[in-house]
Specification:
CATH topology of the largest domain: Quinone Oxidoreductase, Chain A, domain 1
Number of domains: 2
CATH architecture of the largest domain: Alpha-Beta Complex
CATH superfamily of the largest domain: Medium-chain alcohol dehydrogenases, catalytic domain
Number of helices: 12
Radius of gyration: 20 Å
Distance between the termini: 18 Å
Mean pLDDT: 96
Shape: globular
Low-confidence stretches: none
CATH class of the largest domain: Alpha Beta
Helix content: 25-40%
């Protein structure tokens, strides 16, 4: 059938909203009607051409929420009408990684997903008879999308899709990193570098875990002020003395947990340095530019600091995202406050512009 979608035609150029075709779901796949989709920095990163694994033409978008329209053969856990959050990070529960219990990085469909195809190596999107590749296995800048069942989280149908769509990427990355990847301890000190969607999610997660002191570092006074809403106790203007300020405020030792949410390698280095002597844990969440390298002074590691990465915040999508939705429904997570702009699909490039100017936290495309 014909659908409207935002297509990346050329790197560095605005997306083009146009009519394309979508085929029905095949084995293990689901057709989803998209109701809301966040405009994430990862979409902008790929559109700019900076992503070494990027490709075009393709339909961007991955922070989506919608309803199941049709299920393909072999789909057992979803039915027409179910409410779902899309997952760029699937959870099959059967691959070696899923069974290990050591990681959230499922390998079941990873190879084809990285190439822009569904698990059987083909695409469901096309234009004028020519296949069009999927983005991150999701392609949610569109009225409909086809995805594998293992990349969809079934959630509470009463939840506001404009808010819970953020759990498809940015919000979960930060929240889950504090809750389940770093496992922030009650009464601890936390430093978050970057007060965008991911950083504020880490602040919210740290507050839920009972952190006593939460430092937030950013260049934007407006975002620092916003961080207080989610639990920041100390807001610091980013600068050359940031690390020294955090260390001095924590008795000369550093924060028990640090989170980097900027994608800037220099800031990643600061997050490592600001971690506590003896046991500080630094969790890197930002995506650095092509070819960039993180430099770490060995002394920081020798004296007890640990550095880890956190793709999707370490969340297992089909397990953890429904839990986060339930927390939102109980009033424990303020997702509504993250939505600063509501736009239409035709305004998708405006979403990129707002992000570039750090205007608000997240723009959400409304399809209804």
């Amino acid at each position: 059938m014909k659908i409207r979608a935002a297509v990346l035609e050329q790197f560095g150029q605005p997306l083009v909203v146009q009519d394309i075709d979508i085929a029905g779901p095949k084995e293990g796949e689901v057709l989803v009607k998209v109701h809301a989709c966040g405009v994430c920095h990862t979409d902008l990163y790929t559109a700019s051409g900076a992503d070494p694994s990027g490709y075009c033409p393709c339909v961007l978008g991955h922070e989506g929420a919608g309803t199941v329209e049709e299920v393909g053969p072999g789909v057992r856990g979803l039915k027409k009408g179910d409410h779902v959050v899309t997952l760029f990070s699937p959870e099959c529960g059967e691959c070696v990684n899923c069974k290990s219990g050591k990681t959230n990085i499922c390998t079941a469909i990873r190879e084809q997903q990285g190439k822009g195809y569904l698990p059987d190596g083909t695409a469901r999107l096309s234009r004028d008879g020519e296949p069009m590749r999927h983005f991150m296995g999701t392609s949610t800048f569109a009225e409909y999308t086809v995805m594998p069942e293992i990349a969809l989280a079934k959630v509470d149908p009463e939840a506001n899709m404009e808010s819970i769509c953020l759990l498809a990427c940015g919000a979960t990355t930060g929240i889950a990193a504090a809750l389940w990847k770093a496992e922030v301890e009650e009464g601890s000190s936390v430093a978050v570098f970057g007060a965008g969607m991911v950083g504020l999610g880490a602040v919210a997660g740290a507050r839920l875990r009972g952190a006593e002191r939460i430092f937030v570092v950013d260049t934007s006074e407006k975002r620092l002020e916003l961080a207080k809403r989610w639990g920041a106790t100390d807001c610091l203007q980013a600068g050359e003395t940031t690390v020294e300020e955090i260390v001095a405020a924590t008795g000369g030792l550093g924060a028990d947990y640090t989170f980097e949410a900027t994608g800037l390698v220099e800031v990643m280095g600061q997050a490592v340095e600001a971690a506590r002597l003896g046991w500080g844990l630094c969790t890197v969440l930002g995506v650095a530019g092509k070819g960039e390298k993180l430099e770490v002074i060995p002394r920081f590691l020798i004296t007890g600091r640990t550095v880890q990465g956190g793709s999707f915040g370490g969340a297992k999508g089909r397990t953890h995202v429904p839990q986060l939705v339930d927390m939102y429904m109980r009033g424990e997570l303020d997702l509504d406050g993250f939505v600063s702009h509501r736009i239409t699909l035709d305004e998708v490039n405006k979403g990129f512009e707002l992000m570039h100017h750090q205007d608000g936290i997240r723009s959400v495309i409304k399809f209804d």
